[in-house]
Design brief:
The complex is a heterodimer. By secondary structure, chain A is α+β, with helices and mostly antiparallel strands. Chain A is built from 4 helices and 9 strands. The model of chain A has no long low-confidence stretch (mean pLDDT 93). The chains are: A alpha+beta, B alpha/beta.
Chain lengths: 165, 562
């Protein structure tokens, strides 16, 4: 698959069973790439919002947005790339601790405005929120201490401009 | 008014003015079949569910009205998949109802349970599982709306058995309200103006028209647009009949087995006007060398078709009939333009004269399949509805029968489904009992849905089957001859069965022609039969190939000629 630029696409869909499968099937069936996909209900319980991160050149992205729009359950497709938008991801990281590493880890937690959500004799579990770079940076810094487990939500995004709904 | 799900099903179909259902009963649709037992609704009992879907497809293509199918759960439902994929590829409106195990059993691997909604998601325009009988009427209304609007396509509704028996108040909605489904039917007026300007400034324009012209019922508009401007036209396989095949401006089909004139015109045009066509690989040949000198205008109702394979200069999204009407209204200077492109037309006529399609028959030699199609054309005066199977029979039917009207050439273009032609012919004959309907078949393809002969006999449908019998899977054999050094791997199917005896066993009429002299007589006899199916077995020369041919991956002007 052609690499190209990474795009963050926001998709409003009718909240029905099978919608996720339709969208996932569209991506796999046409050979489009999904880096991450998040979905949850909006204020209107009949509508869900998906944030899909994908890569491709202009032509592929044009096809992705058109094909998404063609699905009967899709209400709106908005490619946020190229304008101002916020992007956040949450990660839970379980990191090894020792007597002499605790303070250092705590200072990283502090710098990244992460939170310690669980403590055990041998590990901290941290919660950190941020854009992709921040999550990557904290993971890199914690890696030498030994990351036992990590789980990430995938990205969600919201445009700044009023039309980017 | 309280009604059961099964009764609601029937009422909804009546509201949608459905007159015929193609179906096959089974455990999970018994409540519906019980309602049909005394209902005023024609039900065509098929012999295989795939046949039912192709019949509904043929019915829809011939009549323009959506086809309706009813089958049971599990294997009944999975047998519809090829038919659905065929209709989806060619944008044919249809609504398929499948029975399903009761809602309480769904997901339990119950007897004859299949996740048909999951299975058919990629080969339907949309599909539904009805979980509550209260939603049934709305869903049927939506299904017909979705199937027939925008770019048409098949819609499937999965009906659990308990939903069919559950009772609720019935009222059929007057309107459809699907905010997330709003096809754009009106072309952008600025784009239309730009397109007209580009056309009028061109010197070597070509119209490349596809199946969209037919599904939009825009053949009349296209014809008058073409005749006003004098622009030469080529049709895709799906587009045949969308412009009169006997018009002097018609260059024939383009693409892999297109005419020399059409493919040369594509190679040399400076302005390609694509109308309801989708730049399929069988049309474009090598994509980098497709229309090297042309600016491209593309009219299509489906935005995803635009700039999918080939980047387009002026896209117009909208219903073709609407857009062409506006174009006709805004058109000025047509007569002057028509005169200005005379040299281009002469050039095309030159190409057409260099390499013509020939159906010539040496009376001392074996029957040529092309000659058979040519005689079918002559003896039906071009007024028949032709269906085809897939392969050489399909290409010769496209090349040698001239289609004057839309909805008279029914073929599986996108998916290329062998076994399509016979059931499609039955469907077309149901829609038009008085017309001559002929399935031009190969001896391979016909056997893929041969069981539907019983349906035709049952229903006293006089469909004609013309088998171009070459004892081979001919198109594959042709590729093996040309590209695999004549290693005919698994393509010789031999001289069996005896098709004449076979149709006689079913209760139809069988005729055979072994020499060129017998061809006309067989066709004439067949055309006289009006109360049962008739099969014409033409024993043809097995070495005949379809030409011209653009080998896969080659540009359109690199044709192999006879």
């Amino acid at each position: 698959m052609d690499k190209g630029v990474r795009h963050t696409i926001s998709v409003s869909v009718v909240n029905e069973f099978g919608v996720l499968s339709r969208i996932a099937g569209l991506f796999s069936g046409r050979g489009f790439n999904i880096e991450s996909l998040c979905v949850a209900e909006t204020l209107d319980p009949k509508v869900s919002r998906m944030t899909i991160v994908t890569t491709g050149d202009d032509r592929i992205l044009e096809q992705i947005t058109k094909q998404l729009n063609k699905l009967v359950n899709v209400i709106k497709v908005y490619d946020l790339t190229g304008e101002e938008y916020f992007e956040r991801e949450l990660a839970l990281i379980k990191v090894n601790i020792k007597q002499d590493t605790r303070t250092e880890i705590l200072s990283i937690v502090d710098i990244f405005r992460a939170k310690i959500v669980d403590v055990s004799p041998r590990s901290y579990t941290l919660e950190v929120t941020g854009d992709e770079n921040k999550i990557r940076a904290i993971t890199e810094l914690l890696r030498p201490f030994g990351i036992k487990e990590i789980v990430r939500t995938g990205r969600i995004a919201l445009g700044r401009s009023p039309k980017a709904k | 008014m309280k009604k059961s799900g099964a009764e609601i099903f029937l009422e909804c179909l009546k509201k949608e003015k459905v007159d015929t259902i193609f179906g096959y009963p089974g455990g999970a649709v018994l409540p519906i079949y019980d309602v049909l037992y005394k209902a005023d609704m024609r039900h065509i009992l098929v012999r295989h569910e795939q046949g039912a879907v192709h019949m509904a497809d043929g019915y829809a293509r011939a009549s323009g009205r959506p086809g309706v199918v009813l089958v049971t759960s599990g294997p009944g439902a999975t047998n519809t998949v090829t038919g659905l994929a065929t209709a989806y590829s060619d944008s044919i409106p249809m609504v398929v109802f499948t029975g399903q195990v009761p809602t309480a059993l769904i997901g339990n691997d119950a007897f004859q349970e299949a996740d048909i909604v999951g299975i058919t998601r990629p080969c339907t325009k949309h599909n539904y599982l009805v979980k509550d009988v209260k939603d049934l009427a709305r869903i049927v209304k939506e299904a017909f709306y979705i199937a027939t609007t925008g770019r048409p396509g098949p819609v499937l509704i999965d009906l659990p058995k308990d939903v069919q028996t559950a009772v609720t108040d019935f009222s059929y909605p007057d309107n459809v309200d699907i905010p997330s489904y709003q096809p754009n039917l009106k072309g952008h007026s600025g784009q239309i103006k730009k397109a007209l300007k580009l056309i009028l400034a061109s010197e070597r324009p070509v119209i490349y028209a596809g199946g969209g012209v037919i599904s939009s019922n825009a053949a009349a508009e296209l014809t008058s647009f073409v005749r006003k401007l004098g622009i030469p036209v080529t049709n895709t396989l799906m587009g045949l009949g969308g412009f009169p095949g006997d018009d002097p401006l018609f260059m024939g089909m383009l693409g892999m087995h297109g005419t020399y004139a059409a493919n040369m015109a594509m190679t040399n045009t400076d302005c390609l006007i694509a109308i309801g066509s989708r730049f399929d690989d069988r049309v474009t040949g090598k994509i980098d060398e497709f229309v090297p000198y042309a600016k491209i205008i593309h009219l299509d109702v489906d935005p995803t078709s635009i700039s999918k394979n080939v980047a387009v200069d002026i896209p117009i999204v909208g219903d073709i009939k609407n857009v062409l009407k506006v174009m006709l209204k805004e058109l000025t200077g047509a007569a002057k333009f028509k005169r200005s492109i005379k040299a281009w037309r002469t050039e095309i006529d030159g190409w057409a004269a260099t390499h013509t399609l020939s159906a010539k028959q040496d009376k001392k030699k074996k029957i040529r399949p092309q000659y058979v199609v040519d005689r079918l054309y002559a003896l039906t005066k071009g007024d028949a509805i032709i269906t085809t199977e897939v392969g050489q029979n399909q290409m010769w039917s496209a090349q040698f029968y001239k289609y004057k009207n839309p909805r008279t050439f029914l073929t599986s273009g996108g998916l290329g489904t062998m076994g399509y032609g016979l059931p499609a012919a039955i469907g077309a004959q149901v829609a038009f009992p008085e017309k001559t309907v002929i399935d031009i078949a190969g001896d391979g393809s016909i056997q893929m849905n041969i069981q539907e002969l019983a349906t035709a006999v049952d229903q006293k449908l006089p469909v004609k089957i013309a088998i171009l019998n070459n004892r081979f899977l001919g198109m594959v054999r042709q590729w093996q001859e040309l590209f695999f050094d004549k290693r005919y791997s698994s393509t010789c199917i031999g001289n069996k069965p005896d098709f004449v005896k076979l149709i006689e066993a079913y209760g139809g009429v069988g005729l055979r022609a072994k020499t060129p002299d017998e061809v006309d007589n067989v066709i004439k006899q067949a055309l006289k039969i009006t109360d049962r199916p008739v099969l014409m077995d033409f024993v043809v020369d097995a070495t005949e190939d379809v030409y011209p041919m653009v080998p896969a991956g080659q540009p359109l002007n690199k044709m192999l000629l006879v």
